[in-house]
Write a structure and sequence with these properties.
By secondary structure, this protein is mainly β. The chain has helices spanning 73-78, 135-138, 151-156, 161-165, 208-216; strands at residues 2-8, 11-18, 30-35, 43-50, 55-56, 65-69, 88-92, 97-98, 103-106, 113-115, 117-123, 139-146, 149-150, 170-177, 186-191, 194-200, 226-228, 236-238, 243-248, 252-260. This is 2-hydroxyhepta-2,4-diene-1,7-dioate isomerase.
């Protein structure tokens, strides 16, 4: 099931996305409004709204976004790094999260903004110290993400808080797909229609299960929290006016336009 979060006439709701549409269009898609919030058991109201009549919001409002660096060997190599012995984890603040169709604001303190297409894991229940055999029980679903990075800032600052945590640096969307197998899906990024990144989740050094186990050894994850699983090779520059799209096979396409801040 595809579950979106949206606003219409000043009201915010969740809805199940129904129907099929050609890539890049919303024709034929509708939202069956969910009663309450979608974590756990929920009911569909039967009230449907055409998708092209609403504004899509970030599909979840995470308490925290835990991101993993250098989880694809070729990406680590293109930046001149080895694959780390243990996963490299960092945080992106909730204020960095935007939805599909929202703008990515080019930060004034950077001259080298990069895209990073990623599979995002959405947590569905509070969990800590999750055993490997229970990982699937705590996952709500999956969505597309763009770990937008100020690469020049990342190189000169030992902590990545500013380089990866600035406002609008974490686009998520367009919705959460609850019926998805992360073992071997295509991850693609295009900029102005030109392919930049093309990889498969099977190329990840650590699997989704590995990452959930590793992260929850240290911290409690809450419903709606997000794990970014790393990016394949091919990261590259973004400029004001660019349209960047992250497509994950079996989920959908997250699209954002880059603008100048202010």
């Amino acid at each position: 099931m595809r579950i979106a979060r949206f606003s219409i006439d000043g009201n915010v709701a969740f809805g199940a996305v129904e129907g099929e549409a050609a890539p890049g269009t919303a024709d034929g898609l509708a939202l069956n409004i969910i009663k309450g919030i979608p974590y756990g058991d929920f009911e569909l109201s039967g009230t449907r709204v055409p998708l092209d009549k609403v504004r899509l919001l970030p599909p979840v409002l995470p308490n925290k976004v835990v991101a993993i660096g250098r989880n694809y060997a070729e990406h680590a190599a293109e930046l001149g790094h080895e694959v780390p012995e243990v996963p490299v984890a960092f945080f992106k603040p909730t204020t960095s999260v935007v939805g599909s169709g929202d703008a990515i604001e080019y930060p004034s303190f950077s001259n080298e903004l990069h895209h990073e297409a990623e599979l995002a894991v959405v947590i569905g229940r509070m969990c800590r110290e999750v055993p490997r055999e229970r990982v699937q029980d705590v996952i709500f679903g999956y969505t597309c993400a763009n770990d937008v990075t100020a690469r020049d800032v990342q190189r000169r600052e030992s902590q990545w808080a500013r380089a990866k945590g600035f406002d609008t640096a974490c686009p998520l969307g367009p919705w959460v797909e609850t019926d998805f197998d992360p073992a071997d899906a295509v991850v693609q990024c295009t900029v102005n229609g030109e392919q930049r990144q093309l990889g498969r989740t099977s190329d990840m050094v650590r699997s989704v299960a590995d990452l959930v186990v590793h992260i929850t050894e240290a911290m409690t994850l809450l419903p709606g929290d997000v794990i970014l699983t790393g990016t394949p090779a091919g990261v590259g520059p973004l400029y004001p006016g660019d349209e960047v799209a992250v497509t994950i096979e079996g989920i959908g396409t997250l699209t954002n336009r880059v603008i100048k801040r202010g």
